[in-house]
């Protein structure tokens, strides 16, 4: 395993009781600041929907997307999309940029469902992107979940973010922490929904990220997540794919990220 620079994060836990207020306050901050960051790296002719606006437009259709993936129950992977939104918020163009699912009808089904959505576009045309994630982790039986959660909670060497020293590029761990904290609204709902489904709160999210030259996550894998609801893990992973990190210096950056829910 590659050596890592470890450091305790300021943003390493998230309470279920604090989620509604926290998500709303950060949502307002994210919605106002994210377009400014995107504008610095995109041409003036492009207008991109803020990821929070994309999440809002897709909200309530999770079961429809999940049914698309049920066509390939034994597979796991991602389907990355980019789409064009008209001035009235309707999807007027869509492209499947990448799919690691073997069956093409899964991507076709997701694209069909996405075309039905309406987004808040402020009366102008805009572009959006979303990466669907399927089966990043497997279900955990209740007793095994409790055992693993107790063991993981006792660890004191893996809080927050740890950038791999072997990364070709460089990006400060604090900048990664701040980006994830500002993007909590992208996945806060995932945890709330998981509590509603399972009736259980608490868990540890552990992800391994590869942040590309443009500051976007180009690869994401599980690094030992302990959450009772695998759908929530997929949902949170989709939020990470939607984040926009500062552009690394010198190439891609590999990092481990840990977040504790309680």
Can you characterise this structure?
The protein is built from 8 helices and 9 strands. α3 runs antiparallel to α4. The longest helix has 21 residues. The chain has 2 domains: 88 residues, TolA/TonB C-terminal domain (2-Layer Sandwich); 126 residues, Fusion Protein Consisting Of Minor Coat Protein, Glycine Rich Linker, Tola, And A His Tag, Chain: A, Domain 2 (2-Layer Sandwich), CATH 3.30.1150. By secondary structure, it is an alpha+beta fold. The strands form 2 sheets. Strands 1, 2, 6, 7, 8 and 9 form a 6-stranded mixed sheet that branches. A 3-stranded antiparallel sheet has the order 4-3-5. The N terminus is likely disordered. It starts with a strand and ends with a strand. Helix content is 37%, strand content 23%.
CATH topology of the largest domain: Fusion Protein Consisting Of Minor Coat Protein, Glycine Rich Linker, Tola, And A His Tag, Chain: A, Domain 2
How much strand content do the residues show? 15-25%
- Give me the Rg, rounded: 18 Å
Total number of beta strands: 9
* Shape summary: globular
How many angstroms separate the termini? 29 Å
Q: Element order, helices and strands?
A: EEHHHEEHEHEHHEEHE
Helix content: 25-40%
Broad CATH class of the largest domain: Alpha Beta
Give the total of domains: 2
- What low-confidence regions span 5 or more consecutive residues with pLDDT below 50? 1-10, 20-44
What is the makeup of the main sheet?
6 strands, mixed
Overall average residue pLDDT:
85
Structural class: alpha+beta
Instruction: Give the CATH architecture of the largest domain.
Output: 2-Layer Sandwich
How many H/I helices?
8
């Amino acid at each position: 395993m590659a050596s890592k620079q470890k450091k305790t994060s300021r943003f390493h836990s998230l309470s279920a009781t604090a989620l509604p207020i926290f998500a709303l306050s950060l949502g307002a901050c994210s919605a106002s600041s994210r377009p400014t960051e995107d504008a610095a790296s995109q041409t003036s002719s492009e207008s991109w929907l803020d990821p929070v606006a994309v999440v809002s437009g897709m909200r309530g259709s999770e079961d429809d997307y999940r049914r698309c993936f049920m066509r390939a129950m034994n597979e796991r992977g991602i389907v990355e999309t980019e789409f064009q939104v008209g001035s009235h918020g309707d999807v007027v163009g869509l492209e499947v940029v990448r799919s690691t699912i073997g069956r093409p009808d899964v991507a076709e089904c997701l694209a069909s469902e996405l075309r039905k959505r309406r987004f808040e576009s402020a009366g102008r045309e805009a572009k959006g992107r979303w990466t669907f994630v399927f089966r990043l982790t497997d279900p955990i039986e209740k007793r095994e979940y409790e055992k693993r959660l107790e063991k993981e909670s006792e660890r004191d060497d893996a809080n927050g973010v740890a950038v791999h020293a072997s990364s070709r590029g460089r990006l400060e761990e604090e900048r990664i922490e701040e980006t994830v904290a500002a993007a909590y609204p992208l996945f806060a709902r995932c945890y709330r929904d998981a509590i509603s489904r399972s009736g259980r709160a608490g868990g540890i999210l552990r992800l391994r990220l590869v942040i590309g030259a443009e500051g976007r996550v180009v690869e994401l894998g599980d690094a030992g997540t302990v959450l009772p609801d695998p759908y929530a893990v997929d949902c949170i992973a989709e939020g990470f794919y939607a984040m926009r990190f500062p552009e690394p210096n010198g190439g891609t950056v590999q990092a481990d990220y840990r977040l504790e829910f309680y």
